[in-house]
Amino acid sequence: MKLDLKTELSRRSSAAQTVVPVILSGGSGTRLWPVSRESFPKQFWPLASEKPLIVETALRTFGGEFAAPMVVCNEAHRFMVAEQLREAGVAGARIVLEPMGRNSAPAIAAAALILAQDDPQAVICMMAADAAIPDGQALRDALLTAAEVARTGMVVTLGIHPTKPETGFGYIEMGAPLEKTPQAHKLTRFIEKPDAAFAEKLIATGGVLWNSGIFVFTVSTLLEELQAHAPHVLTTARKAVEARTTDLDFIRLGREEFAACPNISLDYAVAEHTTRAAVVPVNFHWSDVGSWSALWDLGEKDSGGNVAVGDVLLEDAKNCYVRSDGMLTAVLGLDDVVVVVTEDAVLAAHKDHAQDVKKIVEKLKAEKRPEATTHNLCYRPWGHYEVLILGDRFQVKRIVVKPGEKLSLQSHFHRAEHWVVVEGTAIVTRDHEEIMVRENESIYLPLGCKHRLYNPGRVPMTLIEVQSGAYLGEDDIVRYEDTYGRS
């Protein structure tokens, strides 16, 4: 993702002719628990297709009239973002790291301030990383129409023609068509997520659209509107941008400065107050993938109306969404239910309560259960690990290291480790030694020794790690050297 001078100058010279997608990837997707969790939220999962949602989002607007994307994400997810975009062939992306979540207004403000240094008149297309839009060409056409309107100084959003009285979305009331661009309309007002009765009334009355959360504007228009309606957001975001540092290929915003930003969405900060709002109505299918019932809507159904994903067996079931990421899951004689099975948790709910899954997560957090936020399978920049067994004073993990990657040089105060290589070859640093460990060989790392794991091969290296000690938490790590800049 590093650009040479020639590439950078070319990118800057062409900025005025292109639309810059800014993908916001800050959500945790708690309504899709137990698959989506803070450590690995829904945008990184292949939920609506065979590709992760963030990859689908990036590919919809990659190439042609669209510049390489800018992604604003949680710093804890930076390597997942970079790796998934790299694997998808999305070259040239800039990744901006938020030290903590502050909602969409500070995130897009920071992105706009960075882009302003290239071209204040550049057109930004702001999109969430986790929406499903099967018709990518229809989206591109709508965005280019919106960009045309945005160049006149308007704040433009895409509005989805509603198909039912949905209570999980906000609504937009549209006015008359714009004179020069009749495909777009004046935006009369935003309407909060309604209850069922009000949603039915809105649909019956007509003239309303679902709020997609996709906004298009020029950099200068957004900064002017922030100054007018949310000056504190702009001021604090500017300080965070000025305090930014470069971390490998990432742009890291100033931590203390970004922490001072208000936690507010762009809808509340600007869109609901601006007098320059317009909407482009669209008919393509769109989903915010905000619940398991939304994935049932998107999924391919059998003759009984069921959507089955993974190792699933259904008998006399109707209109169910059943997903298994591990063991065989059988559902018998149930209607309108959601059943989701992962390695360490099972969710069973009526589809009518799909929006309430976040209440389960809140209870798990209150009980300080790790299942609320982390998976047994945890991704790291060097690969991933999976907890197989957790007992009293011992833990067993499966560790997979990508070719050419290495863990940090580290030690532990409270545990010793025994490594058994089951696939590939490892070079292990143990204090002052470097030891080659091949398949079916093992090595012991006593408590307190400095150690490091490196995969010198061309294929992933897999080992089984057995930890033993009084404390086995991931925070019992002292890092001395790290390729990825972690402390």
UniProtKB/TrEMBL annotation:
Residues 316-364 form the MannoseP isomerase/GMP-like beta-helix domain. GO terms for biological process: GDP-mannose biosynthetic process; polysaccharide biosynthetic process. Its EC number is 2.7.7.13. Residues 21-301 form the Nucleotidyl transferase domain. Keywords: GTP-binding, Isomerase, Nucleotide-binding, Nucleotidyltransferase, Transferase. It comes from the Bacteria. It catalyses: alpha-D-mannose 1-phosphate + GTP + H(+) = GDP-alpha-D-mannose + diphosphate. Residues 369-482 form the Mannose-6-phosphate isomerase type II C-terminal domain. This is mannose-1-phosphate guanylyltransferase. It comes from Acidisoma silvae. The lineage of its organism: Bacteria, Pseudomonadati, Pseudomonadota, Alphaproteobacteria, Acetobacterales.
